[in-house]
């Protein structure tokens, strides 16, 4: 059996509920879990390296004035949609998704972001998050150690050795030698993903074949998605959306492939390798 975790990043108070409905209705209808990495208190002024507002910052034109940050609880239709569909599972995606927020070397700063972020998610009626996704997959040595004490699962891109706590280096060396993408540190599971396969900046046609190859080459594959890439300039990309729905149909049709949530890992139900 091969296992797949679908992780969608950047859901926040600025996410139109219609976008999630459009993308993930086929997944939910087929009983395929969707793991939403939710920003607890999204900053409305975060820019990318090009100086432009990040693509997930939507709907500010509907506000009389734009606050610096918005808690997830301020989007009641979105929160209700997620709570009403048991196929969604929640991961904590940083605190406010500001650039480099988990590159901080301050234990107090990191601890506050983790604590207040989890509190906002629970105030929205979601369970206490057990999975953490760092914005931009960026950690410092301090933040990685802190996150590993608060969460049972960490989902990220490849982690550079220089950002690992020193006590993790022997385990990291063993993982590199054995070419294993996922590993355990104490009570925490660290999952890496094979890159952004579901990427809206590439042609849609070959993406499903790339997903099939990745799933076929690993026991456990984390597929990372970003809802807003399907609606660039706030318009639906029909070919990209069709590709995602074809991916859902393929996953649902494969008897040797099981789509799971991060919770299955924290419960010890799924082998990592």
Structure description:
This protein is of the alpha/beta class and 273 residues long. The protein has one domain (2-266): Alpha-Beta Barrel (TIM Barrel), CATH 3.20.20.370. The chain is built from eight helices and eleven strands. Strands 1, 2, 5, 6, 7, 8, 9, 10 and 11 form a nine-stranded mixed beta sheet that branches. It has a two-stranded antiparallel ribbon with strand order 3-4. Helix 1 links the parallel strand 1 and strand 2. Helix 1 (17-29) packs parallel to helix 7 (238-253) and helix 3 runs parallel beside helix 4. It is globular. The model has no long low-confidence stretch (mean pLDDT 90).
What spatial form do the alpha-carbon principal axes imply? Answer: globular
Largest sheet: 9 strands, mixed
CATH class: Alpha Beta
Helical content class: 25-40%
Summing up helix and strand content along with how strands pair, one would put the structural category as alpha/beta
In the CATH hierarchy, the third-tier topology is known as TIM Barrel
Number of domains: 1
Number of strands: 11
CATH-level-4 superfamily name: Glycoside hydrolase/deacetylase
Low-confidence stretches: none
The H/E string reads EHEEEHEHEHEHEEHEHEH
Residue share in β-strands: 15-25%
Radius of gyration, CA atoms, in whole angstroms: 18 Å
